[in-house]
Design goal:
Layout (H helix, E strand, L loop, with lengths): L5 H15 L5 H11 L4 H25 L4 H21 L16 H9 L2 H11 L4 H20 L1 H8 L1 H26 L4
């Protein structure tokens, strides 16, 4: 198996694209932009990329350092996604804004856990056992480029979708996000 493999890169890119689901997150991105007064697309994508790359190399070690396993990490991410989904579905705010932390929405919950969440980070660890590191890095970079484009286009997307369309999409994707949270939670809960 050669180090640079176009077929591997395509597979990894598609797998990560499906897990990150940036297109499905558009209503939530617009919600954050409205709440925060803007999104720092560069900051969010750089932090998400950094998290993904660091986790690819150090994920197991970091979790073991804190005495955590991947399942616990995934469940914690699922709970945050669950809360975000409830906000989208019910049209309420559960995560209160800290006036002194304006602009932090680009980091939490956008960069983590929405873009580089438990599902993405766990998937990256799984990919390491199957694919070459260089191909995983290229797949991450390609996905980060797509994420950046979507984040930069959020205002345009909102204009195209419109207020009523956004309201419907926010609730529909909130339910989908809720289902993803439940799936992550269910697949990582160990009944004894």
């Amino acid at each position: 198996m050669s180090a640079f493999d176009l077929k591997e890169i395509l597979s990894i890119t598609l797998i990560l694209f499906s897990v990150i689901d940036i297109l499905g997150s558009i209503p939530f991105i617009i919600l954050i932009r409205k709440r925060e007064g803007g999104i720092q697309a560069g900051k969010a994508t750089l932090i998400a990329a950094g998290l993904m790359i660091v986790f690819m190399y150090l994920g197991n070690s970091v979790l073991m350092l804190f005495g955590l396993d991947i399942a616990s990490f995934a469940i914690a991410g699922a709970i945050v996604i669950f809360i975000v989904a409830m906000e989208m579905i019910l049209g309420i705010t559960l995560i209160k804004d800290d006036p002194s932390a304006k602009g932090s929405g680009s980091v939490v919950p956008l960069a983590f856990p929405l873009i580089a969440g438990a599902g993405t980070l766990t998937t990256i660890l799984s990919l390491r056992s199957v694919y070459q590191e260089i191909n995983i890095l290229i797949g991450i970079i390609l996905n980060i480029a797509i994420v950046y484009i979507v984040l930069r286009s959020s205002a345009w997307l909102e204009r195209v979708i419109g207020e009523s369309g956004f309201s419907v999409l926010r609730r529909v994707f909130g339910v989908i996000l809720l289902a993803i949270a439940v799936k992550i939670f269910k697949s990582n809960v160990v009944l004894q």
